[in-house]
Design a protein that fits this description.
The protein is α/β, with parallel strands linked by helices. Helices cover 37% and strands 17% of the residues. Helix 3 runs parallel beside helix 5 and helix 5 packs across helix 6.
Length: 268
């Protein structure tokens, strides 16, 4: 972590550990999205867009360089080829195409990381591709195979209890169960679709409560009020949110006050 982040006396080496990740590098062309430089000090891993749903070559290079300045672990964030829909629209895609677009995008970011003297830590599919692979076994297996063939040391991020993580485990990848700070959950453990009311948590205090509850109890409260089991290795917040910097800083500080150590998955 960058030294600008806050240190807490209550956090010890043996304290519970959690990764805090954020989607980054989502600007492209003349369009600017997110506050990468301001968020970086407060997170431990970043997922960099690879040009299909967002991002472009210059933005990818800049995001990698920014992560290196802040000592933040770097991950590829491959998405569907849907720049207009920001990769959040469901598309009918074959397993073969999913494999190809993931290899292409991971490889592109891997090249930028290598050029800057860095290595990728993980891969996290984006948006609709992530949600589709959470339930579709063939799609999940294609993505896991793409990650494995590019670099079997990479960690595959996916939803807790999902087909995506199962596929990663079967092929021999390390996996990390991901939960969300700023999204609500359904009783089956899936995220509330963005076209429904209350899909996104806009209140920072509510986001903090959700994160602390998941990390400390292993459960999440759904939109119906039910508590369901939820494994958490890494917590995501979205860098394109209007208050993303405030969310990142506040959640970082709240985890520290709760005695929870922030560290990327590859750290001891």
């Amino acid at each position: 972590m960058n030294t600008d982040s806050i240190k807490y006396d209550t956090v010890k080496a043996e304290s519970p550990k959690i990764d805090l990740n954020c989607d980054m590098g989502e600007s492209f062309g003349v369009y600017r999205l997110g506050s990468d430089e301001e968020i970086m000090p407060w997170v431990t891993s970043v997922n960099i867009a690879c040009g299909f749903h967002a991002g472009d070559p210059a933005t990818m290079r800049d995001a990698v360089a920014c992560a290196l300045r802040h000592g933040t672990a770097i991950g590829a964030h491959p998405g569907l080829p849907d720049l207009q829909g920001f990769g959040r629209r469901t598309m009918k895609i074959s397993a073969e195409d999913a494999y190809a677009i993931c290899v292409y995008q991971i490889g592109a970011l891997q090249a930028f990381a290598s050029a800057e003297g860095a290595r990728l830590q993980h891969v996290k599919p984006h948006g609709a591709l992530y949600n589709m692979a959470a339930k579709d076994r063939k799609l999940a297996e294609a993505i896991a195979e793409a990650v494995y063939r590019v670099d079997p040391s990479l960690i595959l991020f996916g939803p807790s209890g999902s087909e995506l993580l199962d596929a990663g485990n079967r092929i021999g990848l390390r996996t990390a169960s991901e939960v969300f700070a700023d999204r609500t959950y359904q009783e089956d453990g899936s995220l509330t679709p963005r076209d429904r009311e209350n899909a996104v948590i806009a209140d920072v205090d509510a986001a903090v409560r959700q994160v602390i509850e998941i990390v400390t109890t292993g459960k999440v409260r759904t939109v119906t009020g039910a508590l369901i089991p939820m494994q958490a290795d890494t917590v995501c917040l979205h860098g394109d949110g209007a208050h993303a910097v405030l969310f990142a800083k506040t959640i970082h500080q709240a985890l520290g006050r709760a005695g929870i150590r922030l560290a990327c998955p590859q750290s001891p």
